[in-house]
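hey m, so remember when u said the tokens were messed up on ur end? i reran from scratch. heres the input so u can diff it against urs
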Amino acid sequence: MGYANSDHGDTAPLAVKILVAGGFGVGKTTLVGAVSEVAPLRTEEYLTHASVGVDDLEGLNGKTSTTVALDFGRITINRELVLYLFGTPGQERFWFMWNDLVNGAMGAVVLVDTRRLDVSFASIDFFESRHIPFVVGVNCFHGVRDRAPEEIRKALDLDPQVPLVLCDARDRRASRDVLVALVDHLMAAHSRPATPGS
């Protein structure tokens, strides 16, 4: 990847839009906040009695708020590349926003929770159906790794070329590693010959 030239001969880093997606409560807001070099923009609202029976809180003890529009952050990978991160809302009632958020996105991170893998199927299907490259970040809450990577890959029915990275979304370095894995995946996909339907 190289610099983009301006009219004055100066160079600017390449800006790339990335989505951070996944089911409700998997850690998307946490990851964006942990890795962003600027104060992240958040659209968090408190969960109220109105969400009872609508939002599935099973396995999410202590969760009191939810993203209702998006999270936004930025991270500079190197002098040549800046990632703009857009965290998607996880509840099904807000999925309509994904169609707007995906515009211009080069790739995505699908964050998953091994305690609730089923809430991530829709995210994976969304990017696969749009032929948008993605990596899977397995958020190991409190450092617990209760499933082997190959077991997770099989449970999610991932294509062999989709990278899977274990991480802790609270940790800046671990979250950055997931994004670097996505950048590597995007570069590899760009260098492969195009196939029909891609």
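this time it looks ok to me. Confidence is low (pLDDT under 50) at residues 1-8, 47-55. if urs says something different then somethings off w ur setup not the seq
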